[in-house]
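Customer escalation, tier 2.

The customer says the design service returned an amino acid string that "doesn't look like it belongs to this structure." They asked us to rerun it and document both sides in this ticket. The original structure tokens are below, unchanged.
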């Protein structure tokens, strides 16, 4: 039996003996190797989304004269004028076409506001749509008129889209912003009080259009720029 010969590391250093290429000093062997993790595409998208969220928060502060919580509708006020009783039928719309009728009201409001814009404002809207940057849609006031910017904010909010291109394309489903608004009412209200919900929607459309115009003018007067984030209208 042959025993291995162990030579302390100090002997190599004191006598300057050469070590083989496969032999490492203890501190070299235990030294961790730091490698930079390659940046993947998902990390970049997360960073961009984080930057966009911070921009939205900043422009919400600029565009609103009141805190966010004070602009949100009180759900207790969403109750309708008369109570819904079990088994109530009446002559009201049974809600089969509530969403369709509500969408018709929204499209009518969008068409009326679009018709109120002049030709130059139409051109500005199409120009902004063609070069719309989703992550930072901030434009100088010389690029888009306040009325055109307010119309775009209104359309993006009610259509539930972060990009205005969808407004000029054939819709594949009901506007998600409108669906979110209708879903605030209880199922029995949607079933038996569709007419009153539609009347409330017509009023809320006018209020939202007015609020969009106010926010655009605040941004323009305070910064000289206008931000077209759909989230600004989440009041």
């Amino acid at each position: 039996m042959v025993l291995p010969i162990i030579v302390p590391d100090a002997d190599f250093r004191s006598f300057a003996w050469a070590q083989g290429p496969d032999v490492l000093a203890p501190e070299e062997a235990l030294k961790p190797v730091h490698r930079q993790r390659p940046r993947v595409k998902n990390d970049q998208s997360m960073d961009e989304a984080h930057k966009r969220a911070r921009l939205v928060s900043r422009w919400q502060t600029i565009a609103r004269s009141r805190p966010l919580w004070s602009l949100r509708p009180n759900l207790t006020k969403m109750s309708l004028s008369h109570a819904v009783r079990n088994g109530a039928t009446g002559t009201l719309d049974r809600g089969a076409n509530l969403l369709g009728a509500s969408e018709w009201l929204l499209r009518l409001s969008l068409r009326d506001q679009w018709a109120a814009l002049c030709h130059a404002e139409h051109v500005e809207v199409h120009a902004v749509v063609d070069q719309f940057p989703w992550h930072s849609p901030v434009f100088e006031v010389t690029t888009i008129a306040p009325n055109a910017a307010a119309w775009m904010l209104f359309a993006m909010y009610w259509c539930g889209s972060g990009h205005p291109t969808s407004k000029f394309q054939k819709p594949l489903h009901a506007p998600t912003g409108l669906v979110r608004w209708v879903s605030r009412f209880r199922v029995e209200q949607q079933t038996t009080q569709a007419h009153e919900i539609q009347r409330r929607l017509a009023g809320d459309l006018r209020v939202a259009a007015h609020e969009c115009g106010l926010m655009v003018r605040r941004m323009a007067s305070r910064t000289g720029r206008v931000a077209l984030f759909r989230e600004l209208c989440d009041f």
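Tier 2 assessment: The sequence is consistent with the input. Residues 194-223 form the longest helix (30 residues). The mean pLDDT is 75. Sent an explanation to the customer and offered a walkthrough call.
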